[in-house]
Specification:
The complex is a heterodimer of chains A (139) and B (674). Helix content of chain A is 22%, strand content 33%. Chain A has 139 residues and is α/β, with parallel strands linked by helices. Chain B has 34 helices and 17 strands. Chain B has a six-stranded parallel β-sheet with strand order 1-10-7-4-2-3, sandwiched between helices. A four-stranded mixed β-sheet of chain B has the order 8-5-6-9. In chain B, strands 12-11-13-14 form a four-stranded parallel β-sheet. In chain B, a hairpin with a 4-residue loop joins strand 5 and strand 6. In chain B, helix 3 (38-54) packs across helix 12 and helix 32 packs across helix 33. The chains are: A alpha/beta (139), B alpha/beta (674). The interface between A and B is large, with 43 and 57 residues.
Chain lengths: 139, 674
């Protein structure tokens, strides 16, 4: 599952790190005991599940502040527990829905970007300029 | 004043922008096609859409009930004016003077922005491309890339002018500037308006995006969603399949950066408008119901040679552009359907890439027949083709005057008018080729009008080839044209008359060979659609037939030993899927084979299209010739007399005598020494 996720993320040009925990994010001044946290430059968020078919993370949005935190992070780290990886978007969605009943789920698969001017790709439009997936493999 | 076809064709900024977009799209798409099974996806999407369009009424009722039971305000708008009134009522009731919008084709369809502006409510587009076209008082010209027609220079100029800025010609700097301007608007309203890519009948909405603007739009107190009823699907699995394939086919992305899936957006109030606007009417039409299978990926626009030549400012209806734009504009009762539909060359490049296998070209032909537009000369020419006695007489009569081809070198007006300025036409045969007497056989050759009028040498090569291979082929003495010219010019009744005559000519043969794939495809596909007669097992392109036959025979081939290439005719490659086999055969024989870039891109002949839309046709053939020159080829082989006419005629005008264009049958005859 992990290999497949990395392979697909590479196709989309998104960085993936396999980690044992996300404690290193504390060095950015982020509180990793929370569900999400951000400062001006860096943010992190814990995903409910992930889909390998598209290298996507499923995030629940229970309140507007969480959405703002995601959008305002210049670099956004998204942690996904290995055990929550599923093959398809649909399977990942149902797993997320089992975990929480929030009405709004956001699938993130890459940074905010546009190619609206002459097909030239520019990252960081109205959201994060960079996404890093942290696949948490506790071993 | 409205820009002309010629002006669009000569707009170098537009040409550069479209070329870049097309190139970038296909590079990305080809990479993904190696990883994902696009054909399987297309089948799945077609099946999902067909199933749900069949259950459209049931789906609407379910969705309305589900949303209402959850306490949302839902409005079913039969027509766009009802949707607009509903918008007005909500916004005025809430005292809203400004709204932020995310990209929504449905709001473009109902002209929401101009309606709101007239009513003193300011709509602000927040997708960068949409914002740019809105700022410049234009309309979006592509489904997923609204500002595709705008060059960076043009954007820079109006940004500097409108905002009194001093930006440099740097796309990153320009994007940063735009995003800051857009960003200011999110806090200036409490209302966001958006569309959705899919909605399940239990009320789960799906929106795909990349920029992050949609999440800002959703993050308002009042959310209004407008969605076409064709977007409703039965369940979440169906929806995920659509949103998974949509970006792959639309932009060559594995997936979009963001997919919003919600049963309620984050705001406090949620209003939903379900828009019909002729969708339920078209869902009941046997053929045109397939239009609703469209998932609005815009791939057909990127594949269409007309769209990528003139762009979506010319090749458009009221809202939608390109091939699918013809179909959606028909659904939308667009007034100028005749002008719009006749811009299509019929090359089927759209069919090949469509996400849900909509037979776009075939439906456009049907539309052409409903909105026929032909001048008297064209009508006479096409109608005369049903009477081959008359046609033969006209050939004999005209032949002495056009021994050296149709060039009109002394008559500039006629030359320009008939598209002879960019390509000449060949000499007219002394007599119609189909009058050549042959022994009766179970295998017939339907030579077609191009061979009968212009290319008797190709016909004679086939006779020599068949004699050499000891195959009896009977040349069919035609009573009429096959009807393709009539059908492709919207004269369906005439096409049926001509086809009926042709059926009588061909029905006794076990195998019917064609020198023109357009005729072959007409008999194979359109006769089946028009009369329910299936000729598919009996119809074969002559070249393909010989290639298959030679697989089991041993002959000595003497290659041309020149740099050769093969151009794939539209009807042979996309219509009949037989062009690749011919190319492989040539590759095997010719060591100096040079593969043609964009080998299956239309050459721009398309019969009378090359006269009616000569500027577009000229652009097509110039691009073809550029590719031929880049391939360093001395000989261009193809399988269609129309393509030969177009390419060799353009080479003639360019005086490029070092490149010859020949029919595959002639090539085969030559390398066999027949």
């Amino acid at each position: 599952m992990i290999e497949k996720f990395i392979e697909t993320a590479n196709l989309s040009g998104v960085e993936v790190k396999v980690v044992k925990n996300i404690n290193f994010l504390n060095e950015f001044g982020l509180n990793t005991s929370l569900d999400y946290d951000s400062n001006k430059n860096v943010g992190f968020i814990k995903a409910l599940s992930g889909a390998t078919e598209s290298a996507s993370a499923v995030i629940n949005i229970p309140k507007r502040e969480k959405l703002k935190s995601i959008l305002n992070s210049k670099t956004l780290y998204i942690s996904i527990e290995k055990a929550t990886l599923r093959s398809t978007l649909s399977e990942a969605y149902f797993l997320a829905k089992q975990k929480c009943q929030d009405e709004y789920m956001l699938f993130i698969s890459g940074e905010s970007k546009t190619a609206d001017i002459e097909k030239t790709l520019v990252s960081g439009v109205q959201g994060p300029e960079k996404i890093v997936f942290l696949l948490v493999n506790k071993g | 004043m409205k820009k002309t076809e010629e002006e669009f064709c000569n707009d170098q900024f537009l040409q550069n922008a479209l070329n870049r977009a097309e190139k970038s799209y296909f590079e990305k798409r080809r990479k993904l096609e190696k990883v994902f099974d696009f054909e399987k996806f297309k089948d799945e999407i077609r099946d999902i859409k067909e199933k749900n369009i069949k259950s459209l009424e049931e789906n609407i009722v379910f969705l309305l009930n589900n949303l209402r039971s959850r306490g949302f305000e839902v409005f079913f708008a039969k027509y766009s004016d009802e949707a607009l009134t509903y918008f007005y009522n909500i916004l005025t009731k809430k005292g809203i003077k400004k709204v932020v919008k995310s990209k929504s084709l449905t709001t473009e369809e109902i002209n929401l922005n101009s309606f709101l502006e007239k009513n003193n409510i300011t709509p602000v587009e927040t997708d960068l491309g949409e914002w740019l076209v809105q700022l410049n008082n234009e309309k979006a010209t592509h489904m997923t890339a609204p500002a595709i027609h705008m060059s960076k220079e043009k954007i820079l100029n109006f940004l500097n002018e409108k905002f009194n800025a001093n930006l440099k010609l740097d796309i990153k700097e320009m994007v940063d500037f735009c995003k800051n301007e857009i960003n200011k608007e999110f806090d200036n309203t409490n209302c966001g308006i958006f569309g959705a890519n899919v909605v399940t009948r239990d009320g789960t909405f799906f929106i795909v995006s990349n920029e992050g603007n949609i999440q800002h739009v959703l993050n308002h107190d009042i959310n209004i969603c407008i969605v076409g009823i064709d977007k409703i699907v039965e369940n979440v699995d169906d929806a995920f399949k659509i949103v998974s394939f949509l970006p792959k086919n639309a932009t060559g992305q594995v997936i979009t950066s963001w997919i919003d899936v919600f049963t309620k957006p984050p705001g406090n109030e949620f209003f939903v408008i379900l828009l019909d606007n002729n969708r339920s009417k078209i869902a009941r039409e046997e053929k045109f119901d397939k239009v609703l299978n469209c998932i609005k990926c815009g791939a057909c626009q990127m594949a269409c040679p007309v769209y990528t030549t003139v762009g979506g400012q010319l090749f458009r209806g009221e809202t939608y552009a390109g091939p699918i734009g013809v179909l959606l504009s028909y659904m939308d009762n667009y007034k100028l359907m005749n002008e719009l539909s006749f811009l299509c060359t019929g090359c089927m490049a759209c069919d090949k890439v469509c996400s849900s296998r909509i037979p776009i070209q075939s439906l456009i032909l049907e539309i052409k027949s409903k909105y026929e537009r032909n001048n008297i000369i064209k009508k006479f020419a096409i109608k005369s083709m049903k009477n081959y006695r008359l046609l033969r007489a006209l050939i004999s009569l005209a032949s002495p005057y056009f021994k050296d081809g149709i060039k009109m070198r002394r008559f500039k007006f006629l030359r320009d008018e008939f598209g002879l300025s960019f390509r000449t036409l060949p000499a007219i045969n002394k007599v119609s080729f189909d009058t050549v007497k042959t022994k009766s056989s179970k295998i017939g050759l339907f030579a077609g009008c191009s061979t009968n009028i212009f290319y008797d040498d190709v016909g004679k090569d086939l006779v020599r080839l068949s004699n050499f291979l000891n195959i009896d082929i009977e040349i069919i003495n035609q009573s009429s044209c096959c009807g393709a010219a009539a059908l492709y010019n919207g004269l369906k009744v005439e096409a049926i008359n001509q086809a009926q005559k042709t059926i009588k000519d061909i029905e006794r043969f076990e195998k019917i060979l064609f020198l023109d794939p357009h005729c072959a495809h007409m008999v194979q596909r359109d006769y089946s659609e028009l009369f329910g007669i299936d000729f598919s097992n009996r119809v074969a392109d002559a070249g393909y037939y010989f290639v298959e036959l030679l697989k089991n025979r041993k002959y000595k081939f003497i290659p041309l030993n020149k740099v050769v290439t093969y151009h794939h005719p539209c009807h042979l490659s996309r219509g009949m899927n037989q062009a690749l086999q011919i190319e492989d055969f040539i590759k095997e024989k010719e060591k100096k084979f040079s593969e043609l870039n964009e080998k299956d891109r239309c050459c721009g002949f398309a019969g009378t299209y090359s006269i009616m839309h000569k500027h577009i046709s000229n652009k097509f053939v110039q691009r073809k010739i550029d590719n031929i020159i880049k391939s360093n080829s001395e000989v261009v082989i193809t399988s269609c007399p129309g393509c030969i006419m177009q390419i060799s005629g353009a080479l003639d005008v360019m005086n490029a005598q070092n490149i010859s264009v020949i029919h595959f049958v002639s090539y085969l005859k030559n390398i066999l020494g027949a």
